[in-house]
Structure formats: C-alpha cells, structure tokens
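Observation: inputs received (chain + S-adenosylmethionine).
Thought: call the complex predictor directly.
Action: predict_structure
Action Input:
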Amino acid sequence: MRLQAVSSNQAWSNKSSQNGRKTYLETLYPAWGQQFVIDEVLFEAQTEHQHLVIFNNAQWGSVMALDGVIQTTEKDEFVYHEMMVHVPLLAHGHAKSVLIIGGGDGGILREVLKHSALEHVTQVEIDQQVIDLCREHLPNHSAGAYDHPKAHIVIGDGVEFVTKTTQKFDIIISDSTDPMGPGEVLFTSRFYQGIQRCLNSGGVFVAQNGVSFLQTTEVTTTHKRLSPLFKEASFYSAAVPTYVGGIMMFAWATDDMALKNVDLATLQARFTQAEIKTRFYTPLLHQACFALPQYIMEALK
Ligand code: SAM
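Observation:
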C-alpha cells in the first residue's frame, strides 16, 4: 500500500516555527499543549489510518506522534512500557499467553518477551506503517522483538480481533492511541465485551487510559463500561513525562480480586526469578501504583 506522501509545503496543523526554529505542537488539548523543537523530521506521512510523524528532538531523542498526539519518545518510553507490562505479568505470576492490541512502536512487545516463561504473544496492530517506520526510526523500541519466534503479529482492527478470535489469553494489554480516530473503538463496551470473551479465567486486562487530571472522563467512562463485565475494574498509575498533565492511568480489569493485592515478598520473588532488568518498575512501586488520588476516587464513586 503506497503511503500518501505529504508535500513538504503542506502545512501541518502541528508545525510552526519559533524564532526561526521549526517546532511541533501537540494538539491533544485545544487550549494547551507541549511543544518540541524539531531538529530533523525523520518521516512524515498520512498512512491509511492516521497522520504519522517521527522527528528528532534534543531533549527526547526520536519522537513519534499520531494525529497530533505524542505517542512515544526514545528517552521516556521505558516508564510506560515497563508499567504496562510488568505490573499485570508479575501480578499474575504464571501467564503463558499475552495479547497486545495496538503497540505498533514495539515497546510493549519488547518488554513482554522478557518474560521467558511465556509460550506465545499475539499483537494486533491496525497500521503496518507504524510498525515498519518505528522499526526503522525507533529501533530501540522493538529491539528485535518483531523477529522473536514467540511473537505473532496480526495487522487488523483490535475490536474485530477480540470479538471474533477463538484464542484465549492470560494477559491482554491495550496499548492504543487516544479515543479518537482508529483508537476510538478500543474504548467501547463492544471492545471490552470482546476482551471479556477472550480472557482466560484468572486473567487480567490492562489498557492505557489517559492522563487523569485532563482526561478524567476517559477514566470514569472506562470504569462505567468495564464494571458490569469484570468483578474488579480499577486503575493504576505512573507519571510518564511526555504524557503531559500529570499521572497516566492504566485500566485494570479482572475477575480475580487477589491479583491487585499480591504481597511484596511474592512480587519480589517473581521479579528476581524473571531476571528482568528494568529502569522504572520495582516491586515496591508495583504495590504503590494502585493507590489513586482522592479526585479520582471521588470521580469513580
Ligand atoms: N503509548 C502510546 C500512548 O499511550 O498513547 C500508544 C502507542 S502505540 C503507537 C498506539 C498504537 O495503536 C498505534 O500503533 C496505532 O496504529 C494503534 N491503533 C489505533 N487504533 C487501533 C485499532 N483499532 N486496532 C489496533 N491498533 C490500533
């Protein structure tokens, strides 16, 4: 499928210049946003599904944005990918199969494959171009994970996959864009019903669920939609520097209420046994990350 080249003089709504320097303005929020000085545009195109740009920035390294929203940067990606993966996997303790929805940059896949006891990992990503371009311009994100024998990559819509597959998984991770464009369907009840049907008993579903201070409605809407389907529909958090506005929330859904309260000694033993080197995740942080701010507790009432 040929990429539709974006002519160089086609104004991006995100591109502007400030004292002679080209800058990229994130347009996730109408009245406020972070801005990056663009040292070099590595790639920019309108794919079949979304506008994709990858550029270099002195502070954050290579940065990828989709439809005007920062998706990942070389410098801080480890925070998000470690917390999205090691919290559910080490809480579960004996997962054999993982499903990743989205995750085109490959960071989730890379972290999941560090769990050597896993038998297989399926990743369902709607946009092949995101995978191809991130492999080329953000190679450390996937770090060879796409060539791993246990990795099975499906190009398709995550909601169609979970509503149709006959496979079942111990862990399901939705690493999607924000609920707009192709990512919108990954925040619907239909998607969550699909998750419920392909999650093994004792399994856990986690999903990126926005920055709670600015996207509180995303948190309450997800809670409303997950609660009828799972005994436990909750959240955990981590502060990811370039997901601006405060803590990033991760949805947590399971029928095994004990999974959220695994004791520290067990987490530590599993972490040690897994022999995984992390830069953000620790067992103590794992325990602490389920503590939510009062404004979220109030909003979820
Ligand atoms: N970490 C980022 C965040 O929190 O915003 C998300 C990273 S990843 C780049 C998001 C991926 O979701 C993209 O590769 C995008 O193509 C994919 N995606 C969006 N909608 C999808 C859908 N309906 N099915 C499967 N993948 C989807």
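Thought: report the result.
Final Answer: Confidence is low (pLDDT under 50) at residues 4-11. The pocket of S-adenosylmethionine is lined by residues 71-72, 80, 101-105, 124-127, 130, 157-159, 175-177, 182-183, 185-186, 208 (CB under 6 Å).
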